[in-house]
Specification:
The chain is α+β, with helices and mostly antiparallel strands and 254 residues long. Strands 8, 9, 10, 11, 12, 13 and 14 form a seven-stranded antiparallel β-sheet that branches. β4 and β5 form a beta hairpin. The structure holds thymidine-5'-phosphate. The site of thymidine-5'-phosphate has 12 residues, from α2, β12 and β14.
């Protein structure tokens, strides 16, 4: 296979030029970082699992009418996506208090919020992704008021759908982060869900035991990190019962 041109390397993924114009290949690494990369490590098998989990969730969301950048999975660690112009905002939805909201506002982790809350963070590593208001986003032109209407509408639908999907497999969707992009087709522009949805960017707690099944196990050194990601995949029905052994297909990448 011809070597692909690398366009961008992030903390957990690499983007390569795609086979056709307007497409990219998104490669999932096992690397994990936390606290703006002050903490670094690897979670063996994470890339393979996140590729599958994100594929599964994006396909289910597409079925209920959420437009996404996802086209199809290519290999164990790669998926073909549409090239979009990323809106430089991390959109966080919280259903239950945890993480930075608990720290900032002094609300005990696990407190159910009176309603789902959306927060925005400006994607800028040098500034440590500061929280911003919609006012900053539209005033500085990171997104237009119309983009924001679409983003809020899509985000609430994603939250409703994923909350139900995870509850069905005994998992509470505590909070999550999504990113959106502008997809241009001729002169038309649509806002679509981009990036990934995986235990790297969700908080997922077991409904019976409250056990954490997400990247907080890595952030907080709770152990059994790979097992947690595998358990999420297993419950979603996308990890063969035999486990990772059956997923180690040939690595086609480079
Ligand atoms: P927080 O409580 O640390 O603000 O995180 C809220 C949610 O967003 C949580 O599900 C983890 C996710 N998240 C990311 O995906 N990327 C990030 O850089 C941060 C800080 C959080």
């Amino acid at each position: 296979m011809a070597r692909r041109r690398q366009l961008y390397e992030g903390k957990a993924k690499i983007l390569y030029e795609g086979p056709e114009p307007g497409t990219l290949v998104q490669y999932f690494k096992d690397d994990a970082t936390a606290f703006n990369a002050q903490k670094k490590g690897t979670i063996p098998g994470k890339g393979v699992l996140n590729n599958r989990i994100s594929e599964f969730l994006m396909l289910r969301l597409a079925e209920v009418g959420i437009p996404t950048h996802f086209i199809r999975r290519l290999t164990m660690r790669e998926q073909l996506i549409r090239e979009v112009e990323i809106v430089p905002i991390e959109v966080v939805v919280r259903n239950i208090a945890a993480g930075s909201m608990s720290t900032r506002l002094g609300i005990a982790e696990g407190t159910r919020l009176p309603r789902s809350i959306i927060e925005y963070y400006y994607k800028n590593d040098a500034l440590n992704d500061p929280m911003v208001a919609e006012e900053h986003i539209t005033a500085f032109g990171w997104a237009s008021p119309q983009d924001m209407d679409d983003i809020v509408h899509l985000t609430l639908r994603i939250n409703d759908f994923l909350t139900g999907l995870f509850l069905g497999v005994g998992i509470m969707l505590v909070d999550f982060k999504v990113e959106f992009g502008r997809l241009w087709e001729n002169d038309d522009m649509r806002i679509v869900l981009a990036d990934e949805i995986s235990p790297d960017n969700c908080r997922l707690w077991d409904t019976k035991t409250n056990e954490k099944m997400d990247k907080d196990r890595f952030r907080r050194d709770l152990g059994r990190v790979e097992e947690a990601y595998q358990e999420v995949a297993k419950r979603l029905g996308i990890l063969p019962e035999a486990g990772m052994r059956d997923m180690k297909g040939p690595e086609l990448m480079q």
